[in-house]
């Protein structure tokens, strides 16, 4: 496997899944590239995050516990999905692997979704409310900011932890930090009724 991670600031071709891969491996590969949301040659991580957000909304609307369970499952299987996709591509941590962005985006929404659930306001979390757009923009924007800039401890995880777990860890940390800041900002200014 190549240890050279492609330059994310350049246009990069997504390495294809080997034609000899099993059906199971092909399914893992498609999850790894976010069901195609990680295919764009530029800004694959941002497009992958958009894909994760699109998937997150129906999960939230299905209910708090559905969102929590799917996020936990995504987190648990994430190291395997990212590691196996990386092996299939032959590149360690290729930018087109975006399952980690999906889970990071879900984690950035989780604290706010929890508070909305606790206050009985999750049923109002639809595009017709200002809170919806504030949460979406803040969660998405902060997650992408932390994922791109990688302040400590995210940078440490990115440099020192490898394999599928390493691919996941920096995005998980970025999602947690973005989620904590989002919930603090949103509920510092939003009235709780």
TrEMBL record:
An annotated Gene Ontology molecular function: metal ion binding
Keyword rRNA-binding belongs to the record: no
A Pfam short name: PgpA
Functional summary from the UniProt entry: Lipid phosphatase which dephosphorylates phosphatidylglycerophosphate (PGP) to phosphatidylglycerol (PG).
Transmembrane segments: 59-81, 125-146, 167-190
Catalysis: reaction(s): a 1,2-diacyl-sn-glycero-3-phospho-(1'-sn-glycero-3'-phosphate) + H2O = a 1,2-diacyl-sn-glycero-3-phospho-(1'-sn-glycerol) + phosphate
GO biological process, one term: phosphatidylglycerol biosynthetic process
Protein's name according to its UniProt entry: Phosphatidylglycerophosphatase A
Source organism per UniProt: Moraxella porci DSM 25326
Subcellular location: Cell inner membrane
InterPro entries given in the database record: PgpA (IPR026037), PgpA-like_sf (IPR036681), YutG/PgpA (IPR007686)
Lineage: Bacteria, Pseudomonadati, Pseudomonadota, Gammaproteobacteria, Moraxellales
PANTHER family according to UniProt: PHOSPHATIDYLGLYCEROPHOSPHATASE A
Cofactor: Mg(2+)
């Amino acid at each position: 496997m190549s240890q050279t991670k492609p330059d994310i600031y350049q246009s990069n071709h997504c390495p294809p899944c080997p034609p000899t891969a099993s059906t199971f491996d092909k399914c893992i590969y498609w999850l790894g590239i976010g069901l195609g949301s990680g295919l764009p040659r530029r800004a694959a991580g941002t497009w992958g995050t958009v894909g994760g957000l699109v998937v997150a909304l129906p999960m939230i609307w299905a209910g708090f516990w559905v969102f929590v369970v799917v996020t936990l499952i995504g987190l648990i299987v994430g190291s395997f999905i990212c590691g196996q996709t990386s092996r299939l591509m032959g590149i360690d941590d290729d930018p087109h692997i975006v399952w980690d962005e999906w889970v990071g985006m879900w984690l950035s929404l989780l604290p706010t979704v929890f508070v909305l659930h606790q206050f009985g306001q999750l049923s109002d979390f639809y595009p017709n409310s200002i809170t919806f757009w504030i949460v979406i923009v803040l969660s998405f924007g902060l997650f992408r900011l932390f994922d791109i800039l990688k302040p400590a401890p995210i940078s440490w995880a990115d440099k020192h932890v490898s394999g599928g777990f390493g691919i996941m860890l920096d995005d998980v940390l970025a999602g947690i930090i973005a989620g904590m800041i989002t919930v603090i900002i949103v509920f510092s200014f939003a009235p709780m009724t």
